[in-house]
């Protein structure tokens, strides 16, 4: 193993930091010893219409039940907007930077209030009630944030679907949560390319309605002004509706455990799960992590480059920052448009202090050459962050040395859609950094490493990462399927939350996430089940069977490698490969684009018919000399053909 590079906390970071190392140690200890007392105190960081008297009521055993602040009453939209108006009504809440570098605008908290209230009234007047599910399929424009907050304001549950998902994927999500109201835009625009969101929505509704769903209204933001089809009576123009709506709307009284949103995410089996987050605990946890992890000070300009279609956008573009009265930057575009300097130019343009992005973007920009970075100033930067996948030490050092000019700390934040907020991360004034390590648990978080049998591993060790007890931001259930929640997260290691990640703990107690140990791929930080890609492939006429595995990819982290067995009589060809790639893109979306397709006469299986993925992974990695025990294969000869025709020959 290469030598680990330690970056000690610099005096300048310590000076600015909200939390020093003694405070970190003390608070962490207190939070574990007496969670009721710790969170009872920190729960007050948000405003409550009715204060809670109960704090923690959680169990990871049996039926699993997670409740925080359960008798408190609050509202997320109120906390993100109204409570700031007196002090910072005229302060910028959202800086919007368009895809086109000449396109930008600022929205103050007063303006945010009016936009959100008008939209909330539009939802209400069109029959959306507390508890209803509203699907949001939007580009990265302020209206996406207004839509989320308007739902929160009236107690509707939003389900944001990433704009890069296909009509089929959107349909599945509309069906699953029985959502009858969709908010979208005519088109999105990213990197100069248009994305037909309304057309996709029309197709999705057609698919969903065939399966018995019913969508009453589609509210359409005019983004590009291109011509779109229109369903009279169903489709509504956003600008027309809000212009006639009242600019005030009372926030609904929400119990702490009333649902705030559903966000679909991929697991190792079956269809994407509707991860359900609730109101009080989520807001306490996201606002607290946003403040302390990013060391957010009043007046800082904060930029998270994620899309609101992912959990990072929910927690660290919208809810966490706005609950803290922060200035949050929302970017419509991509890192390399018009060119690879874009991120750094936006940092200079808006004087960004805190910048949070994904390793895949860092690696891609590192590949574009240092000039793109060094020609910009970046003097405003005070902190850098990463999220989404393990960051390799080389990329970490480049981010530190070149982007941060060796001056600012990097927080490598490990967390998941399910965790709601950051669980393992350095605090910049408290924890020495090691390139490639997410370092230490946040307050209230108790990681544990276990072996395959669930036995606890102590000291420095590698194993499967579990979390022993609940924290306020944790998901509460899989929407409509609590058994699946229990089964997925609490049954592998009874009584513990299993993350699905592998992890190493070093002698200093630092955590190093090594990636998923289940059948979940992480491609450019996007989560995807191998099973989803397989079922997309198998839905093609000419495919009889498919097995999908990940392999190491320089930029994407993981690439998608597909083994495809064709129907009898079909022949593999480059044209068919292209067709299969197009098919998967249309079934799931461009994020699932296969990198390699190998036609396989048959797949290696055990005698009981299970595909031996271990072998397929090895072959995809071109590591076929170490296939291990193949004696349990039903037909060992299958492997020879696979090795012979492998697509990643070095
Ligand atoms: C927030 C988010 C979760 C999975 C997670 C892990 C990987 C996220 C990471 C990281 C190493 C980090 N992951 N952050 N791995 N270091 N700092 O990404 O949520 O889309 O649900 O993905 O991403 O494998 O289990 P989500």
From TrEMBL:
Domain annotation AMP-binding enzyme C-terminal: ranges: 532-610
Species of the source: Chelativorans salis
UniProt gene name: acs
Protein name (record): Acetyl-coenzyme A synthetase
Keyword Kinase set for record: no
Catalytic activities: acetate + ATP + CoA = acetyl-CoA + AMP + diphosphate
Single Gene Ontology MF annotation: acetate-CoA ligase activity
Start and end residues of each AMP-dependent synthetase/ligase domain: 82-467
UniProt PTM comment: Acetylated. Deacetylation by the SIR2-homolog deacetylase activates the enzyme.
Residues noted as binding ATP in the record, renumbered to the chain: 388-390, 412-417, 501, 516, 527
Annotated residues for binding of Mg(2+): 538, 540, 543
Pfam families linked to this entry: ACAS_N, AMP-binding, AMP-binding_C
Coiled coil: none
């Amino acid at each position: 193993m290469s030598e680990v590079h330690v970056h000690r906390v610099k005096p300048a970071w310590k000076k600015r930091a909200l939390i020093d190392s003694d405070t970190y140690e003390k608070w962490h200890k207190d939070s574990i010893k007496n969670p009721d007392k710790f969170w009872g105190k920190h729960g007050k960081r948000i405003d409550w219409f009715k204060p809670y008297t109960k704090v923690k009521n959680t169990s990871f055993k049996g039926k699993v039940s997670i409740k925080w602040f359960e008798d408190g009453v609050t509202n997320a939209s109120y906390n993100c907007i109204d409570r700031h108006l007196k002090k910072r009504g005229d302060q910028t809440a959202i800086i919007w930077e368009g895809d086109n570098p000449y396109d930008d605008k600022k929205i103050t908290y007063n303006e945010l209030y009016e936009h959100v209230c008008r939209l909330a009234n539009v939802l209400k007047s069109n029959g959306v009630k507390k508890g209803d599910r509203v699907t949001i399929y939007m580009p990265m424009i302020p209206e996406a944030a207004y839509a989320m907050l308007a739902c929160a304001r009236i107690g509707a549950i939003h389900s944001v679907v990433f704009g890069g998902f296909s009509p089929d994927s959107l349909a599945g999500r509309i069906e699953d949560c029985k959502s009858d109201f969709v908010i979208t835009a005519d088109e999105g625009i990213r990197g100069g390319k248009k994305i037909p969101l309304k057309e996709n929505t029309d197709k999705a509704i057609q698919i969903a309605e065939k399966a018995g769903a019913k969508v009453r209204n589609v509210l359409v933001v005019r983004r590009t002004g291109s011509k779109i089809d229109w369903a009279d009576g169903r489709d509504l123009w956003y600008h027309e509706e809000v212009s006639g709506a009242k600019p005030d709307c009372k926030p609904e009284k929400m119990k702490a455990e009333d649902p705030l949103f559903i966000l679909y995410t991929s697991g190792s089996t079956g269809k994407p799960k509707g991860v359900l987050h609730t109101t009080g605990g989520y807001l306490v946890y996201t606002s607290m992590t946003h403040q302390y992890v990013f060391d957010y000070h009043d007046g800082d300009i904060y930029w998270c480059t994620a899309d609101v279609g992912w959990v990072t956008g929910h927690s660290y573009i919208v809810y966490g920052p706005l609950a803290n009265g922060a200035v949050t930057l929302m970017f419509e575009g991509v890192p390399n448009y018009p060119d690879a300097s874009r991120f750094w130019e936006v940092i200079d343009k808006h004087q960004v202090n805190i910048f949070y992005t994904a390793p895949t973007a860092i690696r891609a920009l590192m590949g574009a050459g240092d000039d793109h970075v060094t020609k910009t100033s970046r003097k405003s930067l005070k902190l850098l962050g990463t999220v989404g996948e393990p960051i390799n030490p080389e990329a970490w050092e480049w981010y530190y040395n070149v982007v941060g000019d060796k001056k600012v700390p990097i927080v490598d934040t490990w967390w998941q859609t399910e965790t709601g907020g950051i669980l393992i991360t350095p605090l910049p004034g408290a924890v020495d950094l090691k390139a490639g390590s997410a370092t230490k648990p946040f307050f209230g978080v108790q990681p544990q490493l276990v072996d395959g049998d669930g036995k606890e591993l102590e000291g420095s060790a590698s194993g499967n990462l579990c979390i022993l007890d609940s924290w306020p931001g944790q998901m509460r259930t899989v929407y409509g399927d609590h058994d699946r929640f229990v089964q997925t997260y609490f049954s592998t290691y009874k009584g513990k939350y299993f993350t699905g990640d592998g992890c190493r703990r070093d002698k200093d107690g630092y955590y190093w996430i090594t990636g998923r140990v289940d059948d979940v791929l992480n491609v450019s930080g996007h989560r995807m089940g191998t099973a989803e890609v397989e079922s997309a492939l198998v839905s093609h006429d000419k495919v009889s069977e498919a097995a999908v595995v990940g392999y190491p990819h320089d930029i994407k982290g993981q690439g998608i490698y597909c083994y495809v067995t064709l129907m009898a009589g079909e022949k593999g060809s480059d044209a068919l490969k292209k067709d299969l790639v197009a098919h998967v893109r249309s079934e799931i979306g461009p994020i699932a684009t296969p990198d390699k397709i190998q036609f396989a006469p048959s797949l290696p299986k055990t005698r009981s018919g299970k595909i031996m993925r271990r072998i397929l992974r090895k072959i995809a990695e071109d590591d076929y000399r170490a296939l291990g025990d193949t004696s349990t294969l039903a037909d060992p000869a299958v492997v020879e053909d696979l090795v012979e025709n492998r697509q990643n020959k070095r």
